[in-house]
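Customer ticket, subject: "Can you confirm the structure for Uma2 family endonuclease?"

Message body: Hello, I'm evaluating your service for our small team and ran a test protein. I'd like someone to confirm that this is what the system normally returns, since I don't have a reference to compare against.
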Amino acid sequence: MSAAAPKGWRVELIEGEIHLVPPANGNHEEVVSEISGQVRDHRKDLGRYTGIGLTLTGDAPVGRVEPDLVLAPKGSFDDDVRWHDPAPVLLVGEVTSPSTAAKDRGPKARGFARAGIPCYLLIDREAEEVRVHTDPEGEKYTQIAIVPLGKTIALPDPLGFELDTAEF
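Agent reply: Thanks for trying us out. I re-ran your input and got the following:
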């Protein structure tokens, strides 16, 4: 399916539906870059991955997604596999855009929780807020911390640092 997508577009399978994801704009990439830089400053032991495909499993349909950012121990994806098991993932991050916001807030959040990913960071540019979802149970996260864009928000252990969103 990816071969049939327009150049620069991604194909994701979310809750059994195929979605074409357009290329990100510059502001989107600046946000991802800023998060990655802060992670590097605080946690040099973690890999900061973009473009990594994850296979999400659980009680609902399988999904295949490429989050905007994946944090996992360095070397977690050192192979030639296209779609990876999310077991080593500590955090997935998504930055919303008008075309992806609804999927990022709903189906992807459910898929990440079902897969047992411990932390889901959502930079919701449309709502002008940052959400940190933790403690996955079934298809939801039982804890959600929310702050307005521009504030700091705690990333829980094992990340264990404050993310400053002032540059977002």
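A couple of notes from the result: The chain has one domain: 25-164. The domain at 25-164 is CATH 3.90.1570.10 (tt1808, chain A). Feel free to reply with more questions.
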